[in-house]
Write a structure and sequence with these properties.
Layout (H helix, E strand, L loop, with lengths): L22 E3 L23 E2 L3 E2 L7 E7 L5 E6 L16 H4 L7 E5 L7 E2 L15 E7 L5 E6 L3 E7 L7 E9 L1 E8 L5 E7 L13 E7 L10 E2 L6 E8 L4 E7 L8 E8 L10 E9 L7 E4 L5 E7 L8 E7 L5 E3 L2 E2 L7 E8 L5 E8 L15 E9 L14 E4 L6 E2 L9 H4 L10 E4 L5 E7 L8 E11 L32 E2 L30
Antiparallel strand pairs: 1-23, 2-32, 3-32, 4-5, 5-6, 6-7, 8-9, 9-10, 10-11, 12-13, 13-14, 14-15, 16-17, 17-18, 18-19, 20-21, 21-22, 22-24, 25-26, 26-27, 27-28, 27-29, 30-31, 31-32, 32-33
Length: about 550
């Protein structure tokens, strides 16, 4: 989620997006959403292409990668250290060195200033600014309106919170015990040093200061993560799942909720809107996105554009109201109503772990992990020699188009070779004892860079070893996710609260990117000033 705020582009409507899709009224009582309609499709975007995938690092593990774009265009890549993503049957393989060579009981952070051509590792081990052993799991990033970067990670008992004021070059530990006995935290930042935190407490675990209770909760910090408010239970419409976002124009915090066991039960997918979060009121308003949802993944992903329109994506197993595949819906009124879901994928192969990133209004990128075949019950834990590839999709008409047309996507395989083969764990740490492959963790993520291209951070097991390596792939051609604009923006962006910059028109017709290599910049006069902020991925652990 991708938490993330892609970049800064001008506030321009996507081509032909004059009319919105018919809306579905959402209510806190979870009223039924109508089935998808076979409406007229908007024009298909330019053909989507990708550069050759690369490794970010071959000497460190790369499970559950989270990517983000900073205000100046720098890319952040973070990954799990491999401790609970260790696959014993591959322990003797050469790639296992990526676990043991540089292990410090901390998750990993890299940065790139050339859109992924090269990466610099950013250690966070040495006092006095940081500390060792802060957490091997669940890296998470948030960026506030002042450009401060917040980073959290977990051990078995603590969630450590760190902060960088220099574009992720150096971090200062804010609080080793930002939370205790808490699993899978997600964060989002608003105004300077204003930070929101959701997580799952267990065994009496709470945030700091202590407060009673277990289960899913939300808390807030106004001092950059040094302290947090008392936990507030966050279970209206079912517990929150996955990453959170904030509209920096209004301060509204958003989080998806599900009223069943995600990946098991059929239930209602909803959006919780914390409209008074800036005042400290963390009670949400909850509205229905879709009913009878049955997913094979852990959570959906969503994002918002510069005007605050929301976009959400999730997968379906086929055991609910909809066919198996990747599904997409939007809201133009701050999550009060939602469009009928439409399907994005183009075949019957098993799809899991969708992620989503947004550029300018209506310009949306989606990615997912796709098997070679349709697995029985779309179960990713099915044994076999089937391969898994990263697939990407892009639209410039995410809000619809003239005449009431539905969004149209350009879809392409981003990794020609499978990035993984065989089983993929869907049950958390219990997979270790069952010898189900958990090297990938529970998700991968994507973002939009300052040239209008999507990029993905994913876990790659092509090099045999007990852990995965951090993989990277970037769009090389197709629809731009940033719209050209010849005059300065008149309204603040949803992600920074600052005016949008001037962006010169692109030479290619229809807002398409020229087909280039992985690191080439667009030949536009003037560089993008990235004012959008990025955050990427999150999940509620299922075990």
């Amino acid at each position: 989620m991708s938490r993330r705020r892609p970049t800064a582009a001008a506030l321009a409507l996507c081509t032909g997006a004059a009319l919105a899709l018919p809306a579905v009224v959402g209510t806190t009582s979870a009223s039924a959403a109508p089935p998808p309609t076979a409406g007229k499709a908007c024009p298909t975007p330019a053909t989507l292409t990708f550069a050759e995938p690369t490794y970010v690092d071959t000497s460190r593990a790369g499970g559950e990668p989270l990517v983000a774009t900073l205000p100046d265009g720098r890319l952040i890549y973070s990954a799990h250290a491999g401790t609970t993503h260790f696959f014993a049957p591959e322990v003797a393989a050469p790639g296992t060195g990526a676990f043991v060579e540089n292990y410090t009981n901390q998750t990993y952070v890299w940065t790139s200033d050339d859109n992924g051509k090269s990466w610099t590792f950013r250690p966070r081990f040495m006092p006095p600014d940081n500390a060792p052993l802060t957490g091997f799991s669940d890296p998470e990033v948030a960026i506030d309106a002042a450009g401060n970067v917040f980073f959290s990670e977990i051990n078995l008992a603590n969630v450590a919170m760190s902060k960088s004021g220099d574009n992720s070059e150096n971090y200062t530990l804010q609080n080793f015990f930002g939370a205790i006995l808490t699993d899978r935290q997600w964060m989002e930042a608003d105004r300077e040093d204003e930070l929101y935190f959701v997580a799952n407490a267990f065994g009496g675990g709470t945030g700091i200061p202590p407060s009673p209770g277990t289960g899913h909760y939300i808390a807030k910090s106004t001092d950059g993560g040094k302290t947090f408010s008392t936990n507030v239970p966050d279970v209206e419409g079912g517990p929150g799942i996955g990453d959170i976002r904030v509209d920096k124009r209004t301060g509204t915090v958003y989080e998806t909720h599900f009223d069943g066991s995600y990946g098991v039960d059929t239930g209602t997918l909803s959006m919780a809107s914390f409209r008074n979060a800036r005042s400290g009121d963390l009670e949400p308003e909850t509205t229905t996105i879709a009913e009878d949802v049955n997913s094979v993944s852990h959570w959906p992903a969503f994002d918002l554009d510069p005007e605050g329109n929301l976009y959400v994506v999730w997968d379906e197993s086929g055991r609910g109201e909809r066919d198996a595949g990747i599904w997409f819906a939007t809201s133009k009124d701050g999550a009060r109503t939602w469009t009928a879901p439409i399907r994005v994928d183009t075949n019957d192969n098993t799809d899991i772990w969708p992620w989503l990133a947004v550029g300018d209004n209506g310009r949306v990128a989606i990615s997912w992990l796709e098997a070679d075949v349709a697995l029985p019950d779309n179960d990713a834990q099915t044994e076999g020699d089937h391969g898994w590839r990263i697939v990407g999709a892009a639209t410039t008409t995410g809000l619809g188009c003239a005449g009431g047309g539905t969004p149209s996507f350009s879809v392409a395989t981003a990794t020609k070779e499978p990035v993984h083969t065989g089983t993929i764990c869907q049950g958390g740490t219990t997979c270790q004892a069952r010898l189900i492959d958990r090297r990938l963790g529970d998700y991968f993520s994507m973002e939009v860079d300052g040239t209008g291209r999507m990029y993905m951070g994913y876990s790659d097991t092509r090099t045999p070893g007990a852990v995965s390596l951090p993989g990277f792939v970037r769009q090389s051609g197709g629809p731009s996710l940033l719209a050209p604009k010849s005059v300065p923006g008149k309204a603040p962006t949803a992600t920074t609260g600052q005016p949008a910059p001037v962006v010169e028109p692109v030479a290619a017709p229809g807002g398409a990117l020229p087909a280039t290599g992985a690191t080439a910049l667009l030949p536009w006069s003037g560089a993008f000033l990235l004012l959008g902020l990025g955050l990427a991925l999150r999940r509620r652990r299922t075990a």
